[in-house]
Specification:
InterPro entries: ITPase-like_fam, Maf-like. The chain is of the alpha/beta class. It contains 6 helices and 7 strands, in the order E-H-E-H-E-E-H-E-E-H-E-H-H. The chain is elongated, with a radius of gyration of 16 Å.
Length: 186
């Protein structure tokens, strides 16, 4: 099946390929909104729907257009992608030994219809040592990920447990996406 993915994320591409979907990659030209942590679900939905609509306006929607926006929240603070190693260290220290939420807004547009939904997963980190944090940052993996970690990579050893959808933490909740596409007749 062919779809248009409104994202350049290699993780989202790999997740789609895992379930037999070959995405045509078309990153969205969309200025993402922001807000407070209490508005995180609304922000994720707004950004996903905006990306989806922007790409559909450019490419059409005869093929399904899929967009997503993932946000990490702890202590009523949204953790974006770290700007540098110091920011990554601060984020990982904050997450160490604690539980946070990963929130992904998903939007699908197909033949004039658009659905937007949100998925929330609780992620608990084990207690991390300063050496572990420094070694993880040295890999470079945290630098392009919200919350400064990737559960699908080396960051897997930081996570003690999750409550919810694993694929959501990677960046695209596949079960939710499947049900959305089914509802749109894809």
């Amino acid at each position: 099946m062919k779809v248009i993915l409104a994202s350049a994320s290699p993780r989202r591409q790999a997740l789609l390929q895992q379930i037999g979907i070959t995405p045509l990659v078309c990153p969205a030209d969309f200025a993402e909104g922001s807000g407070t942590a209490s508005q995180a679900q609304e922000v994720a939905l707004y950004n996903a729907a905006g990306k989806c609509a922007a790409v559909a306006a450019k490419m059409g929607d005869e093929l399904p257009v899929i967009a997503a926006d993932t946000i990490v929240v702890i202590d009523n603070v949204i953790l974006g992608k770290p700007q540098d190693a110091a920011a990554a260290k601060a984020m990982l220290q904050c997450l160490s030994g604690r539980t946070h939420q990963v929130i992904t807004g998903v939007a699908v547009r197909y033949k004039g219809q658009q659905l937007s939904k949100v998925c929330v997963t609780d992620v608990s980190f084990r207690q991390l040592t300063a050496e572990e944090i420094d070694a993880y940052i040295a890999t470079g993996e945290p630098m392009d990920k919200a919350g400064a970690y990737g559960i699908q990579g080396r960051g897997a050893v930081l996570v003690e447990k999750i409550n919810g959808c694993y694929n959501n933490v990677v960046g695209l909740p596949l079960s939710l996406l499947y049900l959305m596409m089914q509802r749109l007749g894809v």
